[in-house]
Amino acid sequence: MTATHTLDVPGAHLHYEVRGAGPLLLVVGSPMDAGAFAPLADVLAGDHTVVTHDPRGISGSTLDDPDQDSTPELRADDMAALLDALGADSADVFGSSGGAVTGLALVARHPDRVGTLVAHEPPVMELLPDAAEQRAMTDDIVETFHREGQGAAWMKFMAGAGFDSGDGGGDGDCGGAPTPPPGEPSLQDIANGARFFGHELRGTARYVPDIAALKAAPARVVVGVGAASGGLLTYRTSIALAELLGTPPVEFPGDHGGFLGRPEEFAEVLRRTLAG
Predict the structure, then answer these.
(1) Which structural domain range is residue 108 located in?
(2) Rounded to an integer, what distance in angstroms lies between the CA atom of residue 28 and that of residue 65?
(3) CA distances from 155 to 162, 228, 233 (A)
(4) Dihedral sign (CA 212, 214, 217, 223)
(5) Gap between the Cα atoms of 95 and 103, Å rounded
(6) Burial of residue 167 (number of CB atoms within 10 Å: 0-12, 13-18, 19+)
(7) pTM over 0.90
(8) Total number of domains in the chain
(9) Residue-wise pLDDT tens digits, 149-201
(10) Structure confidence by residue, pLDDT tens digits, 38-77
(11) Contact at 8 Å (CB) between 145 and 226?
């Protein structure tokens, strides 16, 4: 059974879902919403209390100011507020893509609130040798969105992420990446895409992890990479982060969205990783 709730936080009203029983695990995306993680959460709910949510401004999580930009720091504070609402001092966290960036910000800002963070393919492009080029690419994608619309922006985004390279899309699906949904997009899909390009992408892509804070925190930080993600930009960023942290990355099934196509296998690796 899944229980749904709404939590008021500064500037937003967060939709979140709770399922299962056992140790508390927050499953975090950005801009992916709670629904996208349902298959994985359903598997994990057999031995965890799993909390998923819609990030601020996405799907059911509404904003007081629709023009407010989303940043990893804001989203991290939302996670801390969720823990407060759940009556939890701390929890383990699995974050994917932009949600992994949220998790990194959570550990840096609220180090005592996280037991283990599994950061699965965070797009921390500022860590790359070609960070300036990546920054320019992000700016071009956002400008393309404002000038030509979502379709053109999605094409540039997917190309820049590496999904047109013929490598790294091992499951034949770009699930973990924020991608245009198959078929005719719903009004909510369109709204989420506009939110992503207009108010979220740039802040996430320009986040610089505080490596010293991550190393000093009591939390254990583990970087996850997809076994089939070798051609993706997020593979490069994940390896760069793992090297700076001085810890080997953990390989997960599939590509950037392996938890969608292979939730049982993915959950098993995640359980082993959380157990240390």
Answers:
(1) 2-275
(2) 22
(3) 11, 21, 15
(4) negative
(5) 6
(6) middle
(7) yes
(8) 1
(9) 999 999 999 999 999 744 434 443 444 455 565 678 899 999 999 999 999 99
(10) 999 999 999 999 999 999 999 999 999 999 999 999 999 9
(11) no
